[in-house]
Amino acid sequence: MEQKAFKQVVTRLRAVLEKQGFPLNQDSVCQNSEGMHAFFIGREMAYGVFYEAEKKRFILRYCSVENGQPEGKWRNRSALLFDPENEEDASRQTDSIIADFTDEVTEKDNKEAVVQRVTKHRRHRGEESKTDALFFYNRLVNVFPELREEIIQERVTYGQIRTATFAREKVLPKMHTLLQGDAQKQQLKKLAEIYSELYANGDTDVHAVITFVLLNSLSDAEVEKLEPYFTPEMKIGCQFARKMRGKKLKPEKPKKQSKNRVVATLNDMER
Fold first, then answer.
1. Element (H or E) spanning 154, and its range?
2. Which of the four, 40, 80, 113, 217, has the lowest number of CB atoms within 10 Å?
């Protein structure tokens, strides 16, 4: 089913991207034990469609182009789970992936924004690529499927994801419902794994959303259900953030001038 879905996704994206100057590179279409991928290469940047067999997900990525080929430092644009129960479910999930990826590459002013990010990325080649909040929320669709439509609606309404607000208004209530109910072990493990992975690989906004917005808003009993599945790094981050609950960071106090410095200044003024 994944091969059929991959072919459909690539075919539909090809119809959109080739009109924008991103032809499909036939030599890039590849399948191996890890999954499948296909590249659409333009003058300044390239898009890549990836299917990861182990994680059962489709990912839309982009990177800059050098000498007519992707330079290889791919950055994630969108990621969606593909784990259908039957052919009908596979068709539904494929259509959803196509709609999401198509929206990503045809969004108003999206091409210019991505090119700007690629240009910025070129200036920081030595730095590790970090995933953003949109990628984080797309990963959470694996646990909370209803987020898919809410993400689309958020972007249609506001033109972007309001990172902290979306977490508080859309994600947090679903977490409370899950953790206060009879959550299955697999659901808890999946949620904790996503948090751990994105805490390790996400940017500053993702770190803040996971710790200070989401985990800090949970009760101790709710956190106890997730903590056993956290990585050591995520456990430390969670514990540190929760120690800061209710505390306000005081602004830095202005440094006092030394008495000698004040006298010297007055003497200078008298001259």
1. helix 147-158
2. 113
pLDDT digits (tens, 9 = 90+) for 57-71: 999 998 888 888 998
Q: Assess whether pLDDT exceeds 90 at residue 27.
A: yes
Tell me, yes or no, whether 170 and 209 share the same domain: yes
Would you put residue 82 in left (φ > 0), alpha (ψ -120 to 50) or beta? Answer: beta
Check residue 213 and give its pLDDT: 92
DSSP character string of 78-98: EEEE---SSHHHHHHHHHHHH
90 & 184 share domain: no
Choose the final residue of a domain: 85, 106, 129: 129
Domain with 209 in it = 131-246
Same domain, 50 and 146: no
Residue 135 lies in a domain: yes
Burial of 172 (0-12, 13-18, 19+ CB in 10 A): middle
Give the separation between CA 178 and CA 143, rounded to whole angstroms: 10
CA atoms of 266 and 148, how far apart (whole Å): 65
Name which of 120, 125, 7, 131 is nearest 61 in CA terms. Answer: 131
Look up the pTM and report it: 0.51
Residue 152 belongs to a domain: yes
